[in-house]
Design goal:
The chain is mostly helical. The protein is about 75% helix and about 0% strand. Strands 1-2 form a two-stranded antiparallel ribbon. Helix 2 runs antiparallel to helix 3, helix 10 packs parallel to helix 12 and helix 11 packs antiparallel against helix 12. The protein is elongated. The relative contact order is 0.06. Keywords: Repeat, TPR repeat.
């Protein structure tokens, strides 16, 4: 009997909807104290108000329900979802913790993990999202968010595992494919990244971000001629080229805040890396050091990639041409 109860508790609730970045319940699962019929009717009215955008009305009903029955877990969760959407992080976390103390399930664990992520409490967010995935192994959004968090902390092995899981659950997910390609590239697992890129481009051949990454990966693999030809094609004025910065601007305006968050994180990382690379080159000039050909090529390829993402396609191609010259000299021993 105990095992059956635990299994039921761990099963995901089917009747829920997304409110902002959180989940909210459509009905009260299980039993509650007071008049069950009346409580359910009031709850349904609150949900209807919440979905219609009448959040003040919904909040008033949830608070009234909780005053009558503080164990009304669904009311705590839905109230937390409204507070989260209103950027009341402290209030949302307090509501979610109340719900979690009453019972654990994948919904509350995801909501709490998401909120902790937005408060930059990464360790707590990771803990709750991992537990959500233990209870619901096919929870796509939990796997995706876990990938974001690990990527933001430069934990690329864990990020790759999470993005791979998300992509397996949803092979058509653009952001899961992008995330996986980026973090594999960070680990110099470029052959793997190229395969992921090519698999996605078979589904969506005109995705500019993945086309950019594909050309960049060819660079990193030393396939300069192919990369150069591909970049000329995707960056020509009459083609579908969109810089990474343009993708970022576009993502900021999208309803999908998770996509926006991903692009923000990667954009910041690209800017930081550009500055580090410039500093390294300046230091080399000051010391009048000549680097090995491989180091020259790596720096030139990195600079090409960074300028490509920032939208300066002319400099991207110029740096790639320089990398090709270095590669040719290295092959001929000149």
């Amino acid at each position: 009997m105990e095992a059956r109860t635990l299994s039921r508790a761990c099963r995901p609730e089917r009747h829920r909807h997304q409110h902002g970045l959180s989940y909210a319940y459509d009905e009260i699962p299980g039993s509650q104290s007071g008049d069950p019929a009346l409580m359910s009717e009031l709850f349904r009215k609150a949900v209807a108000a919440q979905k219609a955008g009448r959040e003040d009305e919904a909040m008033a009903v949830y608070k009234s329900l909780l005053k009558s029955d503080a164990t009304n877990r669904a009311a705590w969760i839905n109230l937390g979802a409204i507070l989260s959407k209103r950027q009341d992080r402290v209030g949302a976390v307090a509501c979610y913790r109340k719900a979690l103390a009453l019972r654990e399930d994948d919904t509350i664990l995801f909501n709490l993990g998401s909120e902790l992520f937005r408060q930059k409490e990464y360790a707590g967010a990771i803990q709750h999202l991992r537990r959500a995935l233990q209870l619901k192994p096919d929870f796509f959004r939990a796997a995706l968010l876990l990938g974001y968090i690990h990527e933001s902390q430069e934990q690329y092995v864990e990020a790759a595992q999470s993005f791979q899981r998300a992509l397996t659950l949803n092979p058509s997910s653009r952001i899961a494919a992008l995330g996986l390609v980026v973090v594999l590239g960070e680990q110099d697992r470029n052959e793997e990244a190229l395969k992921i890129c090519e698999a996605y481009l078979k589904q969506q051949a005109d995705d500019a971000a993945l086309l950019n990454l594909h050309a960049a990966l060819l660079m990193k693999l030393g396939r300069y001629r192919e990369s150069f030809e591909e970049l000329k094609q995707v960056t020509s004025s009459n083609e579908k080229y969109v810089s990474f910065e343009e993708h970022l601007k576009q993502a900021r305006g999208e309803r999908d805040r998770e996509t926006s968050a991903f692009f923000e994180e990667v954009s910041d990382r690209l800017k930081e890396r550009t500055e580090r690379l410039k500093a390294r080159i300046e230091e080399r000039k000051k010391r009048q050091q000549k680097s090995l050909a491989k180091d020259d090529m790596k720096d030139l390829v990195d600079l090409s990639l960074l300028h490509l993402f920032s939208g300066d396609k002319d400099k991207a191609l110029a740096f790639l041409l320089e990398a090709r010259k270095v590669a040719d000299r290295d092959k001929t021993g000149g």
